[in-house]
Amino acid sequence: MAGRLIQLDRAGRFNMTKLNYKYADFARTLLRQIAVDRMMPGDRLPSEEDMGRQHGLSRITVRRALRMLEKDGYVSRKRPLGTFVARSLQDAGDLHMVRGTVIVAIPSLTSNPGDEDHALTTVLRGMEEELAQVGFSVHVLSLGRDERRDRGRLTSLMEHGKVEGICAVGSCFDRFRHLVGATPLVNSCTFFPDQLPWVGVDMSEAAFSCIRFLLDHGHRDIATIVGPWVDLRAMGQINLGHRRAFEQHGVPFRRTMVHQAYEGESIIDLATEILRDKGRPTAIFAEDWRITRAILFAAQNLGLRIPQDLSLVACGQNNLFVSAPVSITAYLPDNEQVGREAARTLVALTDGGLRPSMPLYVPGRVVEQQSVCRR
Question: String of b and e for 148-185 (b: at least 16 CB within 10 Å)?
Fold first, then answer.
């Protein structure tokens, strides 16, 4: 599935200028003005053109601010008469634009509780900070331990809370989406963008970048190992990235070098079988930090040294925290930016924006450390 990629400036940084919330700031300014002027319900506000001229803002920014205030019941817009105050401001809380709640659905830990998911923590931080900027409160809903209880908690939130939208991290919310009706929902951090709107990492690009890095270091016998949790569509993207890197280098691609563990198979056993073979690879791309740990364990049992006997590149932030004799070279998605972009997409939807027609890919980068040597 094609998607759009966030643009970077010349210094390689995200262009935050285009991604700010001027309209939200102006909405708060208007509320303060209404309070200071002691305007009452039915009082008319200046025209969009006059407000834009007075505050140095575009008409689009003014219109988005008014749409936001209208949605939250502060103003009413009557064409062609203009915009009117809809309710008086009762307390200081109104001036801060305290809006409703956004549910952030995350998967429950199903493995060792000691295996902290640093990537998930970073995504959540980006989401919460971005949503707080425009007055939303965040309710984190952990799903996956008990479906009946999960369903009950979600239903209660939807019935009794002012839920304005939902950000789903991973696929944990898939079985509950029918319970939320038309509530705006943004998906993120799954391997494949099967539900729009979606924000995440392009797995084809991640595989391509890692394999290209190994090829640039002289490796030609490069294996890719993927976990059983990756579905067929995402597996196809990873395979595409692997093949594309070889083709760009003019090196023959062998499909047999791409391996996926089947459900219930020991990843350590799979890695051991690959590394014990006579034609074993000189380098491996690990799709996930759990694959990295299995490869390190198998290599240690076989007496293979990293990187002297086997080079290793992995995908994901959690690889930085894997216990290993050397630090792991890894493709690092910008997880905080993923969280921010998912939140921005949701805010745009709650403010009346159009539903995105393409997935939004947030670029990452390969960070070189000690687990790769030249051939």
Answer: eebeebbeebbeeeebbbbbbbbbbbeebeeebeebbb
Q: Contact, 348 vs 164, CB < 8 A? A: no
At residue 265, what is the residue type?
Answer: E
Q: Are residues 168 and 209 in the same domain?
A: no
Domain membership flag for residue 224: yes
Q: What whole-number distance in Å separates Cα of residue 228 and Cα of residue 172?
A: 17
Domain count, the chain: 3
Quick one: pLDDT at residue 4? 60
CB 205 within 8 A of CB 266: no
- Whole-prediction pTM: 0.79
Q: What does the block give as tokens for 150?
A: 């999960």
The yes-or-no verdict on residue 110 having pLDDT over 80 is no
CB atoms within 10 A of CB 237: 21
| pLDDT average, residue stretch 91-109 | 74
Is the domain of 118 the same as that of 189? yes
* Spacing of C-alpha 129 from chain mean position: 14
Could you tell me if residue 152 is inside a domain?
yes
pLDDT bucket at 132, cuts 50 / 70 / 90: confident
Report the b/e string of 27-61 with b at 16+ CB within 10 A.
Answer: bbebbeebbeeebeeeeebeebeebbeebebeeeb
* Residue 213 lies inside a defined structural domain of this protein: yes
The 10s digit of each residue's pLDDT in 321-360 is 999 999 999 999 999 999 999 999 998 898 777 889 999 9
DSSP assignment of 173-224: TGGGGGGSTT--EEEES-SS--SSSEEE--HHHHHHHHHHHHHHTT--SEEE
- Three-class secondary structure of residue 244 per DSSP: helix
Numbers of helices and strands, H then E, in the chain: 11, 15
222-226 and 198-200: which strand pairing? unpaired
Is 12 strand, coil or helix? Answer: coil
Identify which of 235, 240, 246, 237 has the alpha carbon closest to the alpha carbon of residue 211. Answer: 246
| Mean pLDDT along residues 220-228 | 96
